[in-house]
Amino acid sequence: MSDLTMTRGTGNVFADLGFDAEEARNLLLRSQTMMALEGWYRASGLTQARAAKELGITQPRLSQLLKGKISEFSLDALVNMAPRAGMRVGLTINPAPKVRMAPVKAMPATAKEAGRRSGRQTAPA
Length: 125
Prior knowledge:
Elements: H1 13-16, H2 21-44, H3 48-55, H4 59-66, H5 75-81, H6 111-118
């Protein structure tokens, strides 16, 4: 029998690999978005050229994404591609433990809703 020890992961492989907390979170978000985009591409049946056009990028850029070249993509670039693939992207912000925050009013989801809350009229969509 060997003397193997098992350590429970943090839930973020990048943190487990030793990246600092900020970089590990960013890498995790980028990898999740890249996997979602890859899944969209695989299910789409499109050629790489056509899928790249749908995403607003070049075919070589899509090839980099499909090869998992995470260092080639910013989170911002990936988040901008996701809606073009028919995905909704959201952001949830939670305070870290021991961080005190004043209550924040929820922001309206749409401009139309913002107009309703303020009493202003918005142009029809």
